[in-house]
Amino acid sequence: GMRIVDMYGLMDATIARQGRAEQEGATFTRTHAAYVLSRRPDYVLLYGTWTESARGMRLEGTTPYSRDMLSKPEFEAAYAVMREQCRQAACDGNEKMVLYQRRPIGR
């Protein structure tokens, strides 16, 4: 079956206890991208907006866990965009939900 990693730490004791706290609106959340990457998930869902950089288009995270994950060079090396869609049904902004898939070993 498919394993789910709760990147906010609500149901994961390691993230809840050891994750980095960051304020998101009126609440605090915890993230721990290094721990999530150590679990080697097949898929990672992030939220962000596409911006142009010197290396081409890059996703800028719009949630604490998206920013944490996108800051890790090992994430970029191990994962590739599989699919994206607007985060809101109306798609009035440019925020996207972007699904990344782990690359096969050796690529």
Would you write up a description of this structure?
The structure is a single chain. The protein has 107 residues and is an alpha+beta fold. Helix content is 23%, strand content 39%. The strands form two sheets. A four-stranded antiparallel sheet has the order 4-3-6-5. It has a two-stranded antiparallel sheet with strand order 1-2. The longest helix has 7 residues, at 64-70.
Number of strands: 6
Structural class, from helix and strand content? alpha+beta
Overall pLDDT confidence: 85
Q: Give, in order, the helices and strands.
A: HEEHEEHHEE
Biggest sheet strand order reads 4-3-6-5
> Share of helix among residues?
10-25%
Percentage of residues in strands:
35-45%
Count of helical stretches: 4
* Largest sheet composition: 4 strands, antiparallel
Poorly predicted runs of 5 or more residues: none
Termini, distance in Å?
Answer: 25 Å
Overall morphology: globular
Taking all Cα atoms into account, the compactness measure Rg is: 14 Å
